[in-house]
Design a protein that fits this description.
The protein is of the alpha/beta class and 180 residues long. The protein contains eight helices and five strands, in the order βαβαααβαβααβα. It is globular, with a radius of gyration of 15 Å.
């Protein structure tokens, strides 16, 4: 499993889709899953930039993993975002259910992310929601990178402010060199 991490607007979905298509891998985007499957009050909270509970997210990911061949490489984008989610994922790897190949962290500035998100014009891309997502990324998700490194997972930082093809090339460079 290759995990793409980064704040909303860093390009996880674009890079995940590109990488998965290029290699014939399954691509699981938690953002896409949530926009399709979450309804009611929880959907409204999500549109305001609030994260779903760890229990809700883990349950959805667990069910999604049942739908793909876990013996083949796949791309997971947008998960984990919290320590509880990271612990669950590491337990899945320890049990042999999945193999964690690498984590690609798409690093992006607050201003760059804000510009991208406002330009794409989705309903959940308001100034306040963007601020909330960036703050949650910095406090919850960013510390997970060191946590994964300490657990022995290869973590690569990629400058997401580059042109998309340059980001893709850098991801490929890290993954190709990591397999040697």
């Amino acid at each position: 499993m290759i995990i793409l991490m980064g704040v909303a607007g860093a390009g996880k979905s674009m890079q995940g889709r590109l990488f998965a298509d290029e290699h014939g891998y399954a691509w699981i985007s938690t953002g896409e899953l949530f926009r399709v499957l979450v309804t009611g009050k929880r959907r409204q909270q999500m549109l305001e930039g609030k994260l779903l509970s760890d229990e809700e997210v883990i349950k959805m990911i667990d069910k999604t993993l049942e739908l793909i061949d876990l013996n083949e490489e796949f791309v997971l984008d947008g998960f984990p975002r919290t320590k509880a989610q990271a612990d669950w994922l590491l337990s899945q790897a320890k049990s042999g259910r999945i193999e964690l190949t690498a984590i690609i962290n798409l690093a992006a500035s607050r201003e760059g992310v804000k510009e991208r998100l406002l330009a794409r014009g989705r309903q959940d891309d308001t100034e306040e929601a963007i601020k909330e997502r960036f703050n949650e990324y910095e406090t919850e998700t960013l510390p997970m990178l060191e946590y994964f490194k300490n657990a022995g997972v290869h973590v690569y930082d990629v400058d997401a402010a580059q042109e998309p093809i340059s980001v893709h090339d850098e991801i490929m460079h890290h993954l190709d060199n990591g397999k040697q």
